[in-house]
Amino acid sequence: MMTGDIKNFYAGGNTARGFSSLFDSSLQGLERLFILKGGPGTGKSGIIRAIGNRVASDGHDIWFIHCASDNKSLDGLIIPDLKVGIVDGTAPHVIEPKLPGAVEQYVNLGEAWNATQLRGQKPEIERLNGEISQAYEQAYSGFAEALRIHDGWEALYIANMDFQAADELTDEYIQILYGIRNQQKQSRVDHRFLGAATPQGAVDHVPNLTEGLKRYLIKGRPGSGKSTMLKKLASVAIERGFDVEIYHCGFDPNSLDMIIVRELGFAIFDSTAPHEYFPDSPSDEIIDMYTRCIKPGTDEAHAEVITDLKQQYSAKMQESIQFLAQAKALHDALEQIYVQSMDFRIVDRIRNQIQEEIISIAAFVE
């Protein structure tokens, strides 16, 4: 039997605008959703991964939703053809049930812990939670500061931008990507993040998401119109009834980094740092917005200021990532407290129950 295809992305991120969630988008159209509740270290991510791998080995395509705050952890699993999902429903990803009971089912992993033992650890748990919140606050205010620096850097290029050239370039690509094609249906729009600022720095899943597609790599500088072009291309997909995956920037969620239209077999993405890629397949194409849309010599004319802004920006980003790493270390300490109070046999039983239900749904669908 063929193993199902596994796609990886993020639905939440530590951004310059605080914790940003696009979770609801990935849950659209599900007929069954398991929402896992329980403290840190109670096995939520393990349940998600084990069931995902099992379902994929049975030949179903799956989506793994990764956790921006812990590089080894998962926040969710979606099995599109079964219309089933499992998500971590603890803060900061609060999943609001739309149809409790009929679609959503809460799974309480708290029944696997020794409450008496945990009560004895209450002061320590409260202290760690407080310090974790503080570390996130510092990370977010650092990212916000980095965004202000980035805006200043963008302003330099915007001032030297030929907007008409950018519009012409966008129109050219509307023609290349869509031509006159039109699907007579309502388009499905998935909002996601392709990457995230994590405790280990910037991480992305571009190679996995764009595998097997024709790729357009947009090169340019901050403020050279990459996100604006992607927004226009996305709205054409929606107008013409094509399903589109819209990937927001994990640093500034108001900005876009990539769009994918699988029905037409293409991905077009901002291929500048921190997700800088170069053509590695014969069909990859570069779109250079700097040469097309920015006044020649802009880099040279402002070299000193740009170098300075770049350094300030990098330093702020590094500092903020350190706060995420600190939050992760505190969270690991918190997990240890819960792990010591857990009866993992109960967790295994819960995992098996969910897995059995999904297998019976699969049998019914087939």
Strand order within the widest beta sheet: 1-5-6-7-4-8
Percent helix? 40-55%
Number of helices: 11
Provide the succession of SSEs: EEEHEHEEEEHHHEEEHEHEEEEHHHH
Beta fraction: 15-25%
Q: Helix/strand-derived class?
A: alpha/beta
Radius of gyration: 22 Å
Average the pLDDT over all residues and give the rounded result. Answer: 94
> What characteristic shape results from the CA principal axes?
flat
Number of strands: 16
The oligomeric status of these chains comes to single chain
**Which residues form runs of ≥5 with pLDDT under 50?**
none
Distance between the termini: 14 Å
The main β sheet shows up as:
6 strands, mixed
Give a written overview of the molecule.
With 366 residues, the protein is an alpha/beta fold. Helices cover 45% and strands 22% of the residues. It has helices at residues 23-26, 44-57, 115-120, 122-158, 163-178, 206-210, 226-239, 289-293, 298-301, 303-340, 344-365, and strands at 6-10, 12-15, 18-21, 32-37, 62-66, 74-79, 84-88, 104-108, 189-193, 195-198, 201-204, 214-219, 244-248, 256-261, 266-270, 285-288. Strands 1-5-6-7-4-8 form a six-stranded mixed sheet, with helices on one face. The protein has a six-stranded mixed sheet with strand order 9-13-14-15-12-16. The longest helix has 38 residues, at 303-340. The chain is flat, with a radius of gyration of 22 Å. It starts with 5 loop residues before the first strand and ends with a helix.
